[in-house]
Amino acid sequence: MFQPPEYLIEEKVWVWQGKGVWHFVTIPKEISEEIKKMFGYLSAQWGSLPVTLTVGKTTWKTSLFPDTKSECYFIPIKAEIRKKEGIKEGGIIQISIQILV
Fold it and tell me: Is the CB of residue 25 less than 8 Å from the CB of residue 34?
């Protein structure tokens, strides 16, 4: 059985100020390109990909979303996770990413 690779990134949390305040982490371009090449066929609505993420002691399922301008995927970090792990805007966090196949 195919076991997808685990991607480990350490990136800065940024905030999108739109209708509501959303916190995100951008996956570096090189890793985004590899994910798209290997798993792009699994894309759902808006090109999203289902994943399991781990930050600190917290693991949850969500989706990666593509950004057409940067050609990178980004990860939404919901309030519940930010609160559990003490994540703040501008903070650097380490995330383990596992694509769900």
Answer: no
